[in-house]
Structures are given as C-alpha cells and as structure tokens.
Amino acid sequence: MTGVNLHVLPAGPIQTNAYLLTAPERGEAILIDAPGDVWAEVEPILQQENCKLSELWLTHGHWDHMQGGAEIVRRTGAKVLAHAADRILIETPEIMERFMGERMNLEAVKVDRWISQGEVLPAFGLEVEVRHVPGHCPGNVLFYFAVAGAAFVGDALFNGSIGRTDLPGGNFAELEKSVREQIYTLPEKTVVFPGHGPRTTVAHERATNPYIHG
C-alpha cells in the first residue's frame, strides 16, 4: 500500500499480533486487534509518524485480541469495529474467565459499529472488504485490502495451522467451511496476516496446510 506503513506488534501474555497501519502523509492510523499492553508499543509509533489513531478493528472477541482495547479507546478516542456475533464476549468479557479458569481483570470494550459479511470499509483512501470467517470464534472476521493483496484474518488461519475449535462457540466443520469459502477464494498471492505467528500466503496454505486443504 503506497504511503501506508505496516507495524507488526506482538503483545500480551501469549504474543498476540496487533497490526498498526499508519499513513504519515494523511496523519491517519488504524489498529487491528488490541492485545494487552500494546499501547506501550503503539504510542511511540503514532508520535514518531505524527498520526492519530482513528479506529480499532477487532478480528474477534477473544480476550487476547481485545484485552488492551479499553485503554486504546481512552487514550485515543478511536472508534471500535467488530462483528455482532462476538458481542457478548466484547461487552461482558468476564465470561471468558470462566472457561479460562483464571481471573484476568478484563475490561469491556464499547463497540461503535457492528460490521458484517461483505461490508466495505474506507481506510486511507482504499476500500477494505469484510469477510465473516467463523469456526474458531462466532464473530471472527478478516479484513481484505485488495489493492495491497493483504488479508488480516484473526485466528481463523495460521501459518501451517488453524485456530483452535474446542472453546465455546468453536466448531471445526464451520471453520473448515469458512476458510475454504472466505480465505482460500482470495487471490493466491494474497499475504495472510494471522493473529499469532508469522505471515503466510493463500497459495501456501491451500497447498500445505495439514488441517484444511485447498
């Protein structure tokens, strides 16, 4: 993406990837996912590039992707976008403590806009397609920047793996179906940016992923 910088910021207890997109010439920035304590990494980049964080896009509502969201909103006033299927997780995150078996002092995040399959979001003068990819989590979505050939997919698909489906709301058959229909149908050269671990490509995963073959 011409004029847009991508900062990959693993953060939080299990090194969840946050992706900070900045456009210094426009003074704009968007953050995809907000793991715990990520603000400490985001703030100096915003200052250095003289950008204002306008929006926080959540790929899904699991605790490790939204743990730092409330702090981000307080400090920046960023508008939050997420899928309504994960509303209960985002607005009442204490329910995640029940199946995690520990107190994590999670703070609810106020969502300003609920997004859905097929929506097109404006970002840096570009169009970004929203695709719903449930199975790991009911509200998992991906954000596809067609011009850049990049898809930010949350925990639906990893390099050589997939998101776990044994948590509440998870379903392997549903994940398999949505990966095939919503990720593997993207152009083969599309770079896939997952919620954990290194990037990959649609072509690589279709050919070699041991869990969901193309």
Architecture overview:
With 214 residues, the chain is of the alpha/beta class. It has one domain (5-208): Metallo-beta-lactamase, Chain A (4-Layer Sandwich). Helix content is 25%, strand content 30%. The protein has 7 helices and 14 strands. The protein has helices at residues 39-49, 63-66, 69-76, 87-91, 94-100, 172-183, 202-208; strands spanning 5-11, 16-23, 28-32, 52-57, 79-83, 113-115, 120-123, 126-132, 141-145, 150-154, 157-158, 161-162, 191-194, 200-201. It has a 6-stranded mixed beta sheet, with helices on one face. A hairpin with a 4-residue loop joins strand 1 (5-11) and strand 2 (16-23). The protein is globular. The protein starts with a strand and ends in a 6-residue tail after the last helix. The relative contact order is 0.13. The model has no long low-confidence stretch (mean pLDDT 95).
